[in-house]
Amino acid sequence: MMVPGKVLISEKEIKKKVRELAKKVSLYYKGEDVIMIGVLKGAFVFLSDLMRAVKFPVKVDFMAVKSYKGTETTGEVNILLDLREDIEGKNVLIVEDIVDTGITLNAVKRILEKRKPKSLRICALLDKKERRVVDVRGDYIGFAIPNKFVVGYGLDFEEKYRNLPYVSLLKDE
Ligand code: IMP
Whose CA is nearest to atom 19 of ligand 1? Predict the structure, then answer.
């Protein structure tokens, strides 16, 4: 059975990083209104901490997408849950838990770009660079991590372990 093993990023390290990222994005938006868009489910923990650490008026919305099987080249995704907010002319910050192949993020970005936001930026807590299939770059990245499966702080293994306050590797027990 796969269970959480070694802690890769501690709760303290995450807290520090969230503060740093919040400072950077706050400097960028300079008090302007921003809609933070969480990509479900993984991003909700990070988003809830990040939104409380920033210094500008925030609206929050969520999106859920599913990549089609075998679409690594086309990167097509299915929208399972769409936004309620109209983002035209607004500052949009996509918030992601992790960028892995980049397919999800790239697809979300393209969908949102078509809706003509004033600005569109990306903030991701974790980045698995080695696995990248699609060239998509985050504007704000928390930690670069090795090509290992991680859980905690919103990230799951078979829907479990999202509630861990740290990011951990998995081990076979
Ligand atoms: P991508 O489209 O390959 O970039 O996949 C991104 C999504 O896959 C993330 O939003 C996560 O939900 C999931 N994911 C990727 N790597 C991991 C991991 O190590 N642990 C848990 N979920 C992951």
Answer: 149
